[in-house]
Amino acid sequence: MASIGASMFAGAGWIVRRIDGVESKLTDRIDGVESKLTARIDDVESKLTARIDDVETKLTDRIDDVETKLTARIDDVETTLTARIDALASDVVEVKIAVARLEGPPRHLVVAGR
To answer: Looking at residue 113, what is its pLDDT?
Structure first.
């Protein structure tokens, strides 16, 4: 019985050593994969950050360009409308004068002296 107990004890020790060996190998593999994935994720993150910054710069430039063009067009429209309104105001004054001339001065009735 003692030899069976010793064999079982030795077998259990061998199993523990094998499990520790496999665990150690798995831990090493997992650490290697984790470091590779971390490096790839960091690389992708830096590339995405660069692309996002590039797109943001391009969009900012385009928005500024559009804003400049729209401001110029609005200023042109404003100048044109101001000139047309001033011309219309002048025409309205001339129409008022023409209507006043057509109507003439108020007619006064000449009453015969008594």
So the answer is: 58
pLDDT, position 106: 64
Counting other chains too, the contacts that 25-31 makes at CB distance below 8 Å and 24 or more residues apart are: none
Q: Is 4 exposed, middle or buried (0-12, 13-18, 19+ CB in 10 A)?
A: exposed
| Predicted local distance difference test score (pLDDT) of residue 110 | 64
Residues 6+ apart with CB under 8 A from 57: none
- Between CA 34 and CA 40, with CA 39 as vertex, the angle to 5 degrees is 100
- Beta strand spans in the chain (E): none
d(CA 33, CA 27): 10
Q: Which amino acid is at 84?
A: R
